Amino acid sequence: MSTKSADRISDDPLRRDLELALGVELNALLSASRALTERSAAAFHPALQPAAFHLARWLYAYGPAKPSTLAEAVAMDRSSTSSLIGRMKNLQLLESTPDPDDKRAVIIALTPAGEAQVRKALDVRGTTFFERTARWSTDDLRTFTTLLRAFNSPQEEEDRRR
Q: Where are the domains of the chain?
């Protein structure tokens, strides 16, 4: 641990052990999430990098966009995005049309085949997710969701307590 995080560790041994155990579980969650993303990306198209699935998933959720908008939305550099768009167009997963507002620009959209592949990949994610929670009670799901929301939105939770 860094010095900064070591300064924040509780003097209470039970709390410290629980915080460390939480860290272990969060690392396991992140690792499982990365592995699931890799499997989902392979289900989208095995010949493409996982980043292509991120592009396709964003287009599936938000609709057609300019390549620059897409790159910014998924936090990728424009050259990498452009390269992936080219490969995905060659595989007939994406199509481009002239931007009606700027004839020099294009709009990128999923083709019907691209949409079908995104749904297939999302099914891989959904199946795994639901298998993990299938035996949980509704109270357990509610509690986990509430705690995870609080963890993911620490400022919002702090504001609610005030």
A: 15-131
CATH 3.30.450.180 fits 15-131, yes or no: no
- Answer for the pair 108, 97: CB distance below 8 angstroms, yes or no: no
Counting residues of the chain whose pLDDT is more than 70, the rounded percentage is 90
Distance of alpha carbon 145 from alpha carbon 151, whole angstroms: 10
- E strand segments, 36-114: 94-99, 102-110
Q: Are 60 and 53 in contact (CB under 8 A)?
A: no
Assign 11 to helix, strand or coil.
coil
What's the predicted TM-score (pTM) here?
A: 0.72
Q: What is the pLDDT of residues 41-100, one digit of tens each?
A: 999 999 999 999 999 999 999 999 999 999 999 999 999 999 999 999 999 999 999 999
CB-based contacts of 59: which residues, under 8 Å, 6+ apart? 65, 70, 94, 108, 109, 110, 114, 118
